[in-house]
Amino acid sequence: MSFERDLVSPDAEGDERNIEAALRPKRLDEFIGQARVREQLSLVLQSALRRNRPPDHVLMSGGPGLGKTTLSMIIATELSVPLRITSGPALERAGDLAAILSTLSEGEVLFIDEIHRMARPAEEMLYLAMEDFRVDIVVGKGPGATAIPLEIAPFTLVGATTRAGMLPAPLRDRFGFVAHMDFYGVAELEEVLHRSSRLLGVTLPDDAATEIAGRSRGTPRIANRLLRRVRDFAEVRAEGVITRDVASAALNLYEVDAEGLDRLDRAVLGALLRKFGGGPVGLSTLAVAVGEEPETVEVVAEPFLVRQGLLARTPRGRVATAAAWTHLGLVPPPDAFGASLLIDLGDDAEQI
Ligand SMILES: Nc1ncnc2c1ncn2[C@@H]1O[C@H](COP(=O)(O)OP(=O)(O)OP(=O)(O)O)[C@@H](O)[C@H]1O
Ligand SMILES: [Mg+2]
């Protein structure tokens, strides 16, 4: 058994990058949600513009699909400066980074995506560049090698990472501003969906937007993706008209449920409840029960289940919460939790 993850994966899949580029907000006031980050960043940018100096280096931290790349591009646009884009994995050798740094123009924004994946020598070169706008070019090898300092134009580094914890402290400390990107609320995702539907030229009623937003796992990228699937469904089956029922039928067809769980999520939860009485059960036992690798269960399914309060990781193993039983319409056995936690699920709940 294997599961299609494309629909609710927070990572960009296939040619999605191109589609996304068209939906990216270009200015700060078009960027939806993240009110605190937006306000903080707006201050940083405005004061830099006033002083006519490049702003402090900015670190964007947050899960995939929450808008880090989008916001980085906005920074360059708002400052009216060019943007240079690279990524941690592309900077294998210090020379790769030196080539970029030495050709930056004054005030340019250098965006390093996945900055936590940069190789060590490049990282050390970056420290000096961030702090003193200088790089040391090493000439020669062995004991005769000399470092020639080279001045570079003052620039702004914008780093993005999904794993801020993996950044070495000296690097983290050199960012003057850290933008923590959070998951989006349903109302914010509705706004994202309305904006995207205008750009895609489709009519999206409010209640249909609510339906899609609720299943989007707090992530604009997923919201936009579900919107495209709903549009396809409406074109083929509903003469292009999106209603709440059409949206709901489309997403049911793609097996994305009302809380945004997909087949793998429900399989994991279902096995935990039906086969192991709600746990505790070890990760590998649970993975075998759904025919998946333990890593897939741990990395792909569990974080969202934990965030939704449906599953808990305990030292004794994985445990379902009361909400998990409710979500799958099952009645927990009397000994599943303390008796006080038992919930009445009504007559139509499936008995296990
Ligand atoms: N605040 C927002 N308002 C409107 N659209 C957004 C917002 N944030 C993200 N999006 C949309 O979601 C998509 C993904 O955003 P983006 O590529 O910036 O995410 P990311 O955090 O860089 O993801 P990754 O970690 O995978 O690089 C883009 O198409 C963008 O248009
Ligand atoms: Mg990105």
TrEMBL record:
InterPro entries associated with the record: AAA+_ATPase (IPR003593), AAA_lid_4 (IPR041445), DNA_helicase_Holl-junc_RuvB (IPR004605), P-loop_NTPase (IPR027417), RuvB-like_N (IPR008824), RuvB_wg_C (IPR008823), WH-like_DNA-bd_sf (IPR036388), WH_DNA-bd_sf (IPR036390)
Swiss-Prot/TrEMBL catalytic activity: ATP + H2O = ADP + phosphate + H(+)
Binding site for ATP: L23, R24, G65, K68, T69, T70, E131, D132, F133, R174, Y184, R221
Compartment(s): Cytoplasm
Domain of life: Bacteria
Keyword match ATP-binding: yes
Residues covered by region (Small ATPAse domain (RuvB-S)): 185-255
Binding site for Mg(2+): T69
Domain AAA+ ATPase: 54-185
Region: Head domain (RuvB-H), residue numbers: 258-352
EC number per UniProt: 3.6.4.-
Known function: The RuvA-RuvB-RuvC complex processes Holliday junction (HJ) DNA during genetic recombination and DNA repair, while the RuvA-RuvB complex plays an important role in the rescue of blocked DNA replication forks via replication fork reversal (RFR). RuvA specifically binds to HJ cruciform DNA, conferring on it an open structure. The RuvB hexamer acts as an ATP-dependent pump, pulling dsDNA into and through the RuvAB complex. RuvB forms 2 homohexamers on either side of HJ DNA bound by 1 or 2 RuvA tetramers; 4 subunits per hexamer contact DNA at a time.
PANTHER family, per database record: HOLLIDAY JUNCTION BRANCH MIGRATION COMPLEX SUBUNIT RUVB, PTHR42848
Quaternary structure, from the entry: Homohexamer. Forms an RuvA(8)-RuvB(12)-Holliday junction (HJ) complex. HJ DNA is sandwiched between 2 RuvA tetramers; dsDNA enters through RuvA and exits via RuvB. An RuvB hexamer assembles on each DNA strand where it exits the tetramer. Each RuvB hexamer is contacted by two RuvA subunits (via domain III) on 2 adjacent RuvB subunits; this complex drives branch migration. In the full resolvosome a probable DNA-RuvA(4)-RuvB(12)-RuvC(2) complex forms which resolves the HJ.
UniProt note: domains: Has 3 domains, the large (RuvB-L) and small ATPase (RuvB-S) domains and the C-terminal head (RuvB-H) domain. The head domain binds DNA, while the ATPase domains jointly bind ATP, ADP or are empty depending on the state of the subunit in the translocation cycle. During a single DNA translocation step the structure of each domain remains the same, but their relative positions change.
Family: Belongs to the RuvB family.
The protein's name in its UniProt record: Holliday junction branch migration complex subunit RuvB
Gene name linked to the record: ruvB
